[in-house]
């Protein structure tokens, strides 16, 4: 587990912060590594935007801000417009495909898209979209073991929602295991369709 | 709202992180300031300890770690032993009085103690001790308005527990409005009583 910088961003109520906590716990408590999670509150929080910076490593983390994230998980268009350009060249971009139009891509990222909100609705609760995203993240990045992330998730959600969140995790994980990094022609088409 | 560094620490399940989130939201969303909250995961998290660093300011926060906190909120002995010495000279130390023995004080802090767990149990749910602590914090530090913190709390807890957490806030707030910074002779006695 090399030092990996991750930004997770979306709007309030999507479970952005909880996603970061689950991944941080998985890395540290269940895979014996280290992590920091930093959450900024400010004008963007007043607008309903929400963003977390997560740094995961096998040694203590000395600087908790992400300058050029290796991985981004983006769940709203506003977050995409604001943060996408910070992604490290060749980094991995994970998006909620119904909420984010991927456009103006530079730096040749690998793009992974999932209709997490729809999949969560299929389970009866839109609010578990973050757990679908976390499952998808786990499958496509292979950064953390699925077992560690599931344990961290079971720890982190209210017990009455544990089963539902684990189902959502599995849904995203299974989707991710069969997913390929998005083919660029298709993504460009989506991009140009915007206005 | 000058730049104020705060550390909140205790053990897992006490709501340490949620307390930091509520105060960060109050400062930023409801008082138009800025805040960052950083949570470290690592060996201490594996041991069940839990700590958050919160920086609140009326301008953007450039560095999210606390080096010498102005205020500490301590909810376990382990957290006290580990962090108390970092408090800024003349800073404010807020403790859960049944869980923390204050001893070996240096730097002449102002000490505020509250039996938050017992007060929370009096409301029927020990788990709201963090909201009692947040109310107490609000009253004794006067850093944030009670109204802003109540709103942030209402936003941050599950709706089924909203009333209970606000009651817990009020309990701690009322306790704090009548509290005085702990008289040192009494505290030293407690300190020497330890072994």
Give the strand content of chain A: 15-25%
Order of helices and strands of chain A: EHEHEEHEEHHHHH
Oligomer: homodimer
- Structural class given helices, strands, pairing of chain A? alpha/beta
Strand runs of chain A, count:
6
Sequence of strands across the biggest β-sheet of chain A: 2-3-1-4-5-6
Number of helices of chain A: 8
Round the mean pLDDT of chain A to the nearest integer and report it.
Answer: 88
Residues in helix, % of chain A: 40-55%
User: What is the global morphology of chain A?
Assistant: globular
The major β-sheet of chain A equals: 6 strands, mixed
Terminal-residue CA separation of chain A? 41 Å
User: Which spans of chain A have pLDDT < 50 for at least 5 consecutive residues?
Assistant: 183-195
Give a quick summary of the entry.
The structure is a homodimer of 195-residue chains. Chain A is an alpha/beta fold and 195 residues long.
Structure, explained:
Two copies of one chain form a homodimer. Chain A is of the alpha/beta class and 195 residues long. Chain A is built from eight helices and six strands. Chain A has helices at 16-28, 43-46, 77-83, 116-122, 129-141, 146-156, 162-178, 184-193; strands at residues 4-11, 34-41, 49-57, 71-74, 92-96, 110-114. In chain A, helix 3 (77-83) links the parallel strand 4 and strand 5 (92-96). The longest helix of chain A is centred in the C-terminal third of the chain and has 17 residues, at 162-178. In chain A, 52% of the residues are buried. The interface between A and B is medium-sized, with 24 and 25 residues.
């Amino acid at each position: 587990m090399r030092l990996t910088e991750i930004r997770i961003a979306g709007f309030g109520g999507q479970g952005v912060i909880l996603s970061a906590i689950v991944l941080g716990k998985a890395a540290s408590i269940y895979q014996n590594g280290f992590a920091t999670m930093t959450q900024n509150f400010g004008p963007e929080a007043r607008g309903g935007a929400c963003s977390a910076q997560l740094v995961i490593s096998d040694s203590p983390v000395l600087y908790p801000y992400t300058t050029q994230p290796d991985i981004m998980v983006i769940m709203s268009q506003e977050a995409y417009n604001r943060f996408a350009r910070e992604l490290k060249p060749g980094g991995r971009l994970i998006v909620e495909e119904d909420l984010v139009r991927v456009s103006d891509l530079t730096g040749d990222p690998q793009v992974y898209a999932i209709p997490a909100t729809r999949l969560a609705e299929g389970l009866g609760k839109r609010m578990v979209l973050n757990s679908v995203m976390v499952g998808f993240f786990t499958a496509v990045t292979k950064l953390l073991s699925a077992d560690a992330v599931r344990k961290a998730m079971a720890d982190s959600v209210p017990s009455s929602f544990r089963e539902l969140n684990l189902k959502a995790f599995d849904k995203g994980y299974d989707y991710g295991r069969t997913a390929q990094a998005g083919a660029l022609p298709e993504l460009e088409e989506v991009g140009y369709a915007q206005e």
